[in-house]
Write a structure and sequence with these properties.
Layout (H helix, E strand, L loop, with lengths): L4 H11 L3 H12 L9 E8 L7 E6 L7 E3 L3 E4 L2 E11 L5 E4 L4 E4 L27 H14 L10 E4 L7 H17 L5 E6 L5 H8 L4 E8 L4 H4 L2 H4 L3 H13 L3 E8 L4 H8 L11 E4 L5 H4 L9 H15 L19 E2 L2 E2 L6
Parallel strand pairs: 7-8, 8-9, 9-10, 10-11, 11-12
Antiparallel strand pairs: 1-2, 1-5, 3-4, 4-5, 6-7, 13-14
Helix pairs in contact: 3-4
InterPro entries: rSAM_sf (IPR058240)
Protein name: Radical SAM protein
Organism: Streptomyces millisiae
């Protein structure tokens, strides 16, 4: 994908993209070789070209064919240092973690072992804990998390995200979301309740979600081709038309809407043909994520051509064409596998990247 730092600079100049974004796309797509004995790690990266702008990544390791190499101190491309590594740790299933300077809280508050899984999901590769917080524990857990983070309560938290994909039915998801909202209120948080899922789909369910207060639904679309082979059943059974309808119904109820999509699973033409129908029902920038193949088995699901950097830059430019006029813009702190970190359609992207 990238052969050297010189190749990186050549590609960036040819496509008129900043080289840092090109590097990050390739890094997420290729993973890295590493002496660290874990399949997946999270860490802060300071690129040598932008040392004062740290960013956060979660990356597949153990890719012997990657041009990137990572250890506890450095990131190298074809043997040449391109960045420094800080705070590396195993990407296990922590119960909760902060983004955006402790204004955004992500919860893994439901047991992940209930999830049958999608082929691109790294959870089955991890010796991770399997957290599940009982309803009576949620308020106490949030209070403890605040105290351990030097906060008296959660009044300053703008969003609490429930990101586990392990709810078998809509009613079970809504029951848990109501418990999370109650626990938020007990700790002074009146912010947005954000849910990533494919099970919240009915009009009755969306009505119930809207009644929970400020609500944000991220529908886990993921891909459009080969859905039965790639996705778990609850996701695969939703057609693209059905997903657009769900987001439209949610938008009508005042719910913030977007979706997740894995870049690298669909051919570009088919992806764009479907995605253009999502634009009118999307109210915040979607989570476009570069496909991370953690092993050779996962490689077989890449769409032909996506093993090249040129394919990814073509896709990025096509996606920019869909969303440039909407005013919606990506933020790296929301999505550490984004095709955009520092620029979008020639515009500088500002704000936190951790």
């Amino acid at each position: 994908m990238l052969e050297s730092v010189g190749h990186l600079q050549q590609v960036a100049a040819q496509w008129r993209f900043n080289p840092e974004d090109v590097l990050l796309i390739a890094l997420n797509a290729c993973g890295a070789r590493s002496p660290l004995a874990k399949p997946r790690m999270r860490f802060r990266l300071r690129l040598d070209s932008r040392p004062d702008e740290p960013l956060f990544l979660i990356l597949a390791l153990g890719r012997a064919d990657s041009p990137f190499e990572l250890d506890e101190n450095e990131l190298r491309l074809a043997g040449e240092k391109v960045g420094e590594i800080e705070g590396i740790e195993d990407d296990d299933a922590v119960l909760g973690y902060w983004r955006r300077g402790r204004r955004m809280l992500t919860l893994n508050s439901n047991a992940r072992s209930q999830c049958t899984g999608c082929v691109f999901c790294p959870n089955t590769l991890e010796d991770a804990s399997d957290p599940k917080i009982r309803a009576l524990d949620l308020a106490g857990y949030l209070g403890t998390l605040a105290a351990n983070s030097g906060m008296t309560d959660l009044t300053g938290v703008e969003t609490v995200t429930v990101c586990t994909g392990c709810f078998l039915r809509e009613d079970l998801a809504l029951e848990h979301l109501a418990e999370v909202r109650s626990a938020m209120g007990a700790n002074g948080c009146t912010g947005t309740l954000h849910f990533l899922s494919s099970v919240l789909t009915t009009e009755e369910g969306l009505d119930a979600a809207a009644r929970l207060g400020p609500f944000h639904l991220t529908l886990t679309a993921e891909c459009f081709t080969g859905r039965p082979q790639i996705l778990k059943e609850s996701k695969a059974k939703l057609s693209p038309e059905a997903m657009v309808a769900v987001l439209g119904e949610a938008k009508e109820r005042g719910i913030t809407t977007d979706f997740t999509y894995i870049v690298g699973l669909d051919p570009i033409e088919e992806a764009i043909e479907h995605l253009k129908r999502f634009v009118p029902v999307t109210t915040t920038f979607p989570r476009f994520q570069t496909y991370q193949a953690h092993n050779a088995f996962m490689d077989i699901y890449r769409t032909p051509g996506s093993e090249t950097i040129e394919w990814h830059l073509t896709m990025r430019r096509s996606l920019e064409g869909l969303f440039e006029d909407t005013g919606l813009r990506p933020a790296w702190w929301q999505n550490y596998r984004s095709p955009w970190c520092f620029t979008f359609a020639g515009e500088d992207l500002t704000g936190e990247r951790v």
